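Usage

Read records sequentially. Each one opens with the input sequence:
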Amino acid sequence: MPNTATDSAAAADGYQLALQQLTDSALPTGAFAHSLGFETYIERGLVHDEESFGVWLAAYVGQQLTYSDGLAVRFVYEDVPVAELDARLTALLLPRQLREASIKMGGRLLQIGAEVFPSAGLEQYRGLVAAGRAAGHQPLAFAVVARSLGVPLAEALAAYLFATVTSLTQNAVRAIPLGQNAGQRLLRAASDDVAAAVGRIRHLTPDDFGAVSPGLEVSQMRHERQRARMFMS
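and closes with the structure output:
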C-alpha cells in the first residue's frame, strides 16, 4: 500500500529545498545593490542605528511590501493574468528607482529561473517580456516559479517577504553600519512582522493593491537626487 505520509513528506522536501535556493541571499539577482529607500533615511539622520532601522523595516514590511509585492504574489496564485499584474505593478510603483529595481531583479530571476526552475508559466512570462508586452517584475517572477514548484501560497509569501527583509538587513549592516549580531536580532524581530503580513495579505482585496505610505514613496523619489549614495535605489 502507498505510504501517503511518506509521499507528502517527499513532495514537501522537493519544493522546500528548491525554495531555499530561490530565496537564498546568494542568488545573484542584484538585491545587494538596493536599499529600496532606506538610504534616504540614513542621509537625513532618521535611520542611524539598530532601533531606528528596525522601525523603518517594520513600516516597509507592513506597508509597501505587503500591499504591492506580497499581494502581487497572491494574485499570481489566484490565476490573475500575469500580463495584467505586470502592467498594474509598473503603474503602481511610482518612484522610478523602485520600479527599475523591481524590473532589474525580476529580469535576473527570470533568467536564472529559465535555467534552474523551468516551467511553462515561466516561459510564458519571459515571452511577454521579450515581446515588450511586460516589464518583468521580481514578485511576479518569484510567484510564477514558486507556484510551478508546488510551494503553497502561505509558504511562498513568507519566503519572499523574509528574503526581502534579509537582503535589506544585510545592506543596512553595511550602510549604517551595524554589527552582524544586530542584524540577526533585527531578523528575529522582523519574523513577527512577516508572519503578520502573510496573514494580512490573505484578506486584502484588489482595491488594496499598491496602497502605501506617501513617506516611503517620497523617500524613494528623493534618493534619485541624493548626492552621495551606496545603493541604486
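Summary fields computed downstream for this record:
- Residues 4-10 have pLDDT under 50 and may be disordered.
- The chain is about 70% helix and 0% strand.
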